[in-house]
From TrEMBL:
Protein species of origin: Drosophila persimilis
Pfam families attached to this UniProt entry: MADF_DNA_bdg
Coiled-coil intervals: none
Comp. bias (Polar residues): 78-95
Residue ranges, compositional bias (Basic residues): 187-196
Lineage summary: Eukaryota, Metazoa, Ecdysozoa, Arthropoda, Hexapoda
Gene: Dper\GL20841
Composition bias type Basic and acidic residues, residue spans: 197-212, 333-345
Domain MADF as annotated: residue spans: 513-610
Name of the protein: GL20841
Amino acid sequence: MQTFKGMNKTTLKDLFNSGFEHFKVSKGPNGHFLSKKCQEKLKTKLPASSYENVMAWAGDWISKLNGETEASLKAESKQTNSVTEQPASESVQAATNKPSTIIIDLCSDDDEDEETCESLDSLLDSESSLSKSPIIIHDDELGDIDLKDYADHVDGKLDLKTLKTRTIKNEIIAKRVSQTAIEGRSKARAIRSKQKAKQDKLSPDKAQDEPTTRVLSDQSKLKPNETQWITTTPHKAPKETSLRIRTYQKIKKVEQDQITTGKTHEEPKIGFHMDKSNISIKEKISITPQKTQDTATIRDTVGKAQDEPSIEVRSEHSKLKSSEHSTITTHKAPNETTKRATFDKAQEKPTILTDQSKLKPSENRITIIPQKAQDRPTIRIRSDLLLNSNIPTPFENTQLIDGPVGLPAKSPGSTSSSGNRKRKDCDTTPDNGQSCAKRPKALELLRTHPRVHLQLPAVQLLLEKVAHFADDQGNSQALTLINQLLHSLQVAEKKISPLPDRFSAGKRQFWREFLALYQGMPQLWDANHVDYRNKELRNKAYELLETKLREIQPNATRTEVGRRINIFRTNYRREQMRILKQKELGFHSDLCKPTLWFYDYMGFLLTQESFQQGRTRKVRGTATTKPKTMFEFGKDASSDPLDAVSDWPTKETIASYLPEQGVQQSEESSLLSPKIEIIEHDGEPMDTDRLTRDGDVKPEICGFNTSDYKDRNVSTNVALTVGRGSNGTDAHPALSEASEVLAKSWAVQYEEMAPTQRILARKAIADILFEGCMGNLRINRGETRSTVGNHL
DNA sequence: CAGGTCACCATCCCTCGAGT
DNA sequence: ACTCGAGGGATGGTGACCTG
């Protein structure tokens, strides 16, 4: 176990004061050695005496490592030779015998010349175990390897194959994230250059003139007692948004900082308001240990009394001692003048904060590293942390979608938000975060310089780390507080950045599945459905949709689900109306075809009166118009259902539905809408007027209720012929006997399912039926046009 | 121009208090 | 105990505006 024990304090102080904290131990054919670059850096930054001390100290460890490695490799592969050809400069260190060390980070990156999150004190206090050591062993064969893994390998606990696998796995992850990061940075740079002049005008503080969110921190000089600011800084608006997390020791000083940073024209702000409920996020939560010294102080503040809403986290150390007493207080800022947060394009495209290309498995969980190229440090997060973390992070999602992190989706199928006048003003914004949909999901760690970025998930991870520590310490109180803070952060995150679009990178396939799922939940859209008023079932259905939505939007809520659905319905209705108008005007059929990509996937809504022609908006004070059922369409003489709906069968097409003429229909016609026709026994369309006027033939009476039918997911895109006996009472679907038998057999199995399984089964069946209607079902085609595979 | 978003509004349903 | 109406929440439709 390598620690700083044995290294004199003067050397340590010199080491850390020099700003040098990255070592890299490489393994060559002749054993391990400290890279030449590191040595040079050390030499230039350290006093001679300290330099010698450090090199001796490092050499001791390396010698020890070489010895272990040699023995291990001999035993394992019988192919290694003893270390013989170590360069002179390397052997200098290797030959020395000094106490062992802990290696903090890499120094291999030219872009990295400073920054570390580690503090001297914490390291001095550290009894760091190997497992906690972020030391990197660079093996020519295996690449960079976590010290612990390498030690396990040396000890024979980890075979070469596993070690390679781990390395490869981490490299893949690093590459993925890196790619998105690079794309994001490039885009962000382009955006910044475009809007630089604009931001200069709008942002009096030059430090905030970049259209990104960032973490501003002089991490190289970070001391335990110093303050870290994590601030989200929109730049365009004179009214900006601030989300701050800072480490601090003294409460009073923090409060003073809050006051001193209260310039509204400079400070970012949050000003969200519920449109109807007028709920404003102006709460202020402080978790404040009573001991102001040497205790962890975590403050989460949303909203400020001085009209400067913000979130602040103060933490001296990432630990809370059980003996420490903490309190949590909630402040409501009274009589606050709501400021509208305004966001510009630049802000909507935050700078990518991660540079995973250099991700090393052994790095600290979060390492803040400046990048020369952009003068922007990045934050690295251990890949294993991402893999093991339960917290949904953008990084995980970037692996799943096309678009880079932080950038709005570009795909035509994307539901990428595209800004909005209302949202821009953040005025009377519902508490669903809609108004700030594109606000970067990043915090800005503001200290001095350089600037580094820290995304909310990273903060969450930090907090989680603290929580683990508190848990290990058995400090349930601290754990509770931290969890509260995490929750608070997540809530704030939702309100600040619901991320509806950052992760929905235009995956039409996803939305098709989403709509199929929605279609399989008639209790949500079928006003005639027996469960339409059943809140419990509706809630369950929404929960399923919410779960589905979280595939691309980790923080999705039911509100978001409703909003998405509303968007789809709105656009579908609009498209429907457009087609109807085109048809009414007698335009060419080409002009009457839907162009909405998901139009066909929402055809099931045509069974709803609200999506059919003739429905006019009811005016308050006028007589209430009961919703018409499909069977009531004939009431209004001016609205012929056969002509009303775009894809409603014309009288000519109706003939094709007649049993004697077969039930075949063109594929095209079957695609676009459900076709529930009521046909007289003699083949003529049923006089729906008579039906409803007489009131003696209701759908329910006929034993055929549209909602029930839809409940079985058969209505969608299925041409349905309802025969009616001459006596008007024996109406049955014109199904073949074979179909009826088959349907009954399915029904038996369906009845055996649990409610949740039924929902899923309905969805699956609906999907398959739909794909079948689309002609997409295939056998062993290896194609993925059908979603059948998802259900079988 | 397609699509996303939101304010505003209509409608339905539920709750609750007043009146009978 | 029952009825009735006001108030409010939930849900959905419409139109306008916005972005890319």
